[in-house]
Amino acid sequence: MKEGKLNILVTGATGYIGKRLIPVLLDQGHTVFAMTRDKNRLNLADHILSEIRVVEADLLNPDADLSFPDEIDVAYYLVHSMSSSIRKFYEMEATSATNFIQLLDQTQARQIIYLSGLGNEDKLSEHLASRQNVEQILSNAKAALTVLRAAIIVGSGSASFEIMRDLVEKLPIMVAPRWLKSEIQPIAVRNIVEYLTGVVGLSSTYNRTFDVGGPDVLTYRQMLYKFAKVRKLKRYIISVPVMTPRLSSYWLYFVTATSYKLAVNLVDSLKVDVVCQENAIRELVPINLIHYDEAVELAFERIAQNMVLSSWKDAVNDQFSDAHLDEYIEVPTYGCFKDEKHADITGREDSVKRNIWRIGGNHGWYYATWLWGFRGFLDKLVGGVGLRRGRANPDIIKTGEALDFWRVIYAAKDRSRLLLYAEMKLPGEAWLEYRIKQSNEKTVLYQTATFRPRGVWGRIYWYAVWPFHLFVFNGMIRNLVRHII
């Protein structure tokens, strides 16, 4: 028996799946409570933000007076910590789950839906073992638990999709580790969302665990070759037996846009076969399963139409794991170095504003983009995010999202202000700000780079890069006001 319109709590609302799930739940008529550690990072469309209710909470460090709305009927648990730590995520995920059920037990919730990791072998990776440990913790809640175990999720913006895209599009010949022979049952992101919404209030799924996967069982090698075929690329893969997990992690980290922490945890899991052992969910929630090739094609259609709804990169945020974006929105002045430039806008202001809102990603940085790329490469060498994260949309910037090696702290086109905070590895903190103001009857673009050094090395770093700033930032602001589109 399936229930009607419900009050639904979505934890991990800023995550890859959460941002896809919320609009579907709203379309189905449910009332959605979106839980996030920082409401400023909830970069959903305005019409969606106006319909949801925001619950601000940090499950690792919940406030003593925090409580969930009593009227919640169903709660999605989509909190994962794999990208936040290499070895501590097991404890972090256990703590989050424990705090979650303590809060949820105080409500009238009747069902918890948890998206877990698929793994049926006796020896699991630490990340899969952590997911199944969370299952055990959640099963102690008063509400009934429905667990959906999935392997690789294929969709525009997913970590797996973007990693395969980097490998296939950048490497004509791949020297890869033995785990390419591991078998996996990938699933399209729209099928995951269909399953997640299909079990809402469905009593026959209460206190049960389901393996969910697409119609294909493939090796990673086959997935890469099929991906290349969709992209009409000829690729060659050479497997080597000597590549250790550490080397494999570094290989993924330097070739793809993934973070090192995520690469380590992914490699640990890629050595394990992840294939569904039961398919009872197909009878309870009958849907049309999408083949892997079609899922890849659909993802690229989304990308071509600039309709990528969510990206794993926006959820990966090591530096801000315990902070709110609004803590960085006021750029400091004391103890800081600043590089301030300004240029008169002699043409159309909206053209200059459009230039600013297209900065980064494939469009580049308006001057010496190759130097920005080199700086990103240096960042990868020391364990940073590098420049490969790009941006979600070539024309739209939203607060909270990733933009190359920056995080968008504030983006208000109507107020003519864009503020970015550096997520690269630095001996200090860095901001880059653009503002358009009226000054002495002129319209002026202000570009300000701020650096707050940490110790002596921070000061040495600033003076070392200052000569590059001298001509790079001059060239940037000069080209931004030249209406280059």
Secondary structure elements and pairings:
Elements: E1 7-10, H1 16-27, E2 31-36, H2 46-49, E3 53-56, E4 74-77, H3 89-104, E5 111-117, H4 126-138, E6 144-150, E7 153-154, H5 159-170, E8 173-176, E9 183-184, E10 187-188, H6 189-198, E11 208-212, E12 218-219, H7 220-230, E13 236-239, H8 245-255, H9 260-270, H10 281-284, H11 292-304, H12 312-315, E14 337-344, H13 349-356, H14 369-381, E15 402-403, E16 406-412, E17 417-422, E18 428-439, E19 442-453, H15 455-480
Parallel strand pairs: 1-2, 1-4, 2-3, 4-5, 5-6, 6-11, 7-10, 8-13
Antiparallel strand pairs: 9-12, 14-19, 15-16, 16-17, 17-18, 18-19
Describe, in plain words, how this protein is organized in 3D.
This protein is of the alpha/beta class and 485 residues long. The chain contains 15 helices and 19 strands. The strands form five sheets. A seven-stranded parallel beta sheet has the order 3-2-1-4-5-6-11, with helices on both faces. Strands 14-19-18-17-16-15 form a six-stranded antiparallel beta sheet. Strand 15 (402-403) and strand 16 form a beta hairpin.
